[in-house]
Amino acid sequence: MAAQQPKSDLVLLDVFGSPFAQRVRIALAEKGLAYERAEEDLFAKSDLLLRSNPIQQKIPVLLHAGRGPVCESLAILQYLDDAFPATRRLLPAAADPYERARARFWAEYSDRAHSCGKRLWMTTRDGDGHEEARAELLRVLRAMDAELGDREFFGGEEAGFGYVDAAAAPFAAWFRVYERYGGFSVAEECPRLAAWAARCARQGSVADNVYAPDKVCELVELYKQRVLGQQAR
């Protein structure tokens, strides 16, 4: 029997709950691009994923019309801007290299919220590294709050929801997790960032592709149980 052909030129290997995969789906939605999802199980990775990303063996991976795979979420966002120039652009215009460089920096910087947050919720409040992770996470959130300033979105008043917003919006759904495990309020510590998170949640591309905060809290508990259960074997 012949192998089944993809229904779209774009195939995304992802996990729905992954914020890194979510940022790619947000970008695809903002651009109005049709694609096919291939849901992965990170505890039982498919041969397709292992072949497509043999070095990292991680999602997301974008396959485009039989070309080689594009790995890493931010690289995929930039690729979509370049490969589909007729769609809504996320990065600032090529004529403004300074703003493009700043956008790339802050999008990459937003990853620190997730890495610090994970260290926070994977440890107990009196455990090793918990206070350091909490302090570092707050530094990251405050830095992003300061960079956002009084703008509605990181893309600015003219561009609106853009590259940094698409990259960072999935992490906003984790604010409740950070608050629960860190014992602080994002709205009190970073009021402008909290207001930005609420605006992002109302963005159609985000609402359709990012879990609600309560669901994220539930997934964190399930993940911890599964990982800690495997470590105990």
Can you describe what's shown?
This protein is of the alpha+beta class. Helix content is 58%, strand content 6%. It is built from twelve helices and four strands. Strands 2-1-3-4 form a four-stranded mixed beta sheet, with helices on one face. α1 links the parallel β1 and β2. α1 crosses α7 and α4 runs parallel beside α7. The termini are far apart. The relative contact order is 0.12.
Q: Strand percentage, roughly?
A: 5-15%
- Uncertain runs are 1-5
Q: Biggest β-sheet: count, sense, barrel?
A: 4 strands, mixed
The helix count comes to: 12
The run of helices and strands is EHEHEEHHHHHHHHHH
Mean pLDDT: 92
- Structural class computed from helices and strand pairing: alpha+beta
Radius of gyration: 18 Å
Find the count of extended strands (DSSP E, 2+ residues).
4
Distance between the amino and carboxyl termini: 41 Å
Family: Belongs to the GST superfamily.
GO biological process, one term: glutathione metabolic process
Keywords: Cytoplasm, Transferase
Catalytic activity: RX + glutathione = an S-substituted glutathione + a halide anion + H(+)
Gist?
Keywords: Cytoplasm, Transferase. It catalyses: RX + glutathione = an S-substituted glutathione + a halide anion + H(+). The chain has 233 residues and is of the alpha+beta class.
